[in-house]
Amino acid sequence: MNEFWKDYPHIGNILSEVTQLIIDTTKDSDDFITEAISGAVTSGGKMLRPAFLIISAEFGSYKRENAIRLGAVIEMLHIATLVHDDIIDEAKLRRGVESVQSKYGKDSAVFIGDYLFAKCFTLISSHFETKTMEKLSGAILSICKGELKQYSLRYKYDNGIFSYLKIITGKTAALFAMSFHIGAMNSDLSDRQVKILTRIGYLTGMAFQIIDDCLDYSDNQTIKKSTMNDLKQGYLTLPVIYALNNDKSNELKTLLETTNFNENDLNRVHHLVKSNNGLDAARLLARKYTNKAFNYISKLPDSENKNILEDIIKGMLNRKY
């Protein structure tokens, strides 16, 4: 069972079945493909997206095997986007394990990500209606548009908060929202309940990504290597954007435009992001999204799954990793 879900064994057990289905679905006669994908699948992610799909489905009348298939589709889609992200970012590690692109090369990683996308549609097309496929396609489109938007704004240090929020809506919140939506849609819930759960997914995804960006600056005085790579490539996260807006001296902007990313400069960036209220302001916005999610959760019928949702979202706001 996934360690993250040890306090919720019912969810954890279903997620174990989701993982096994992904392994079975992606197993290939070519050992190279099987080995490469197996490493990506079993690298220890929290599996939040399939878990939220299952929790959402359990508010209605659902078939367990269908929820497991849909959960596998959502997680494979997520893994495929991570494989492609690591190519773009030239990341050496993913969840503490050597990334696919580092281990097998960029060319192979491109095809491995594509292979996972293809398996998503193979699994969903054989068991579900066209409407579900349309939702999946829409999420992929949103992710791609978010990535392209982010790329188009590289090295533009006067970007506003709205541009950042638009990017993470596509990159992160869209897949969270779709996880809730598809779980609810395939469980005979009313339109109102589907909309409530979808909205919870969107708000949770927004908070999740903002908190993720905050973690880059919250531990100590040292910037993480992944954060340094983002800055080198001109990608700005919300704490940096807030700090740039608040920095009347323009020291942070000047530093980002001229630095060669030596250790002293990076430590100074870290200090300026925090001293210009970038971290606190970003955390405050994450809390606003989280509170809105709780408002929607309060509209759901009382149940164990409602309690689990509240616990997990509270934990996300206070997480350290």
Automatic annotation (TrEMBL):
GO biological process per UniProt:
isoprenoid biosynthetic process
Q: Name one GO molecular function term.
A: metal ion binding
Keyword Transferase carried by entry: yes
List each coiled-coil range: none
Cofactors demanded by this protein: Mg(2+)
Indicate the family of this protein: Belongs to the FPP/GGPP synthase family.
Q: Which PANTHER family does the entry link to?
A: ALL TRANS-POLYPRENYL-DIPHOSPHATE SYNTHASE PDSS1, GERANYLGERANYL PYROPHOSPHATE SYNTHASE
Give the protein's recorded name. Answer: Heptaprenyl diphosphate synthase
Q: What is the protein's species of origin?
A: Alkalibacter saccharofermentans DSM 14828
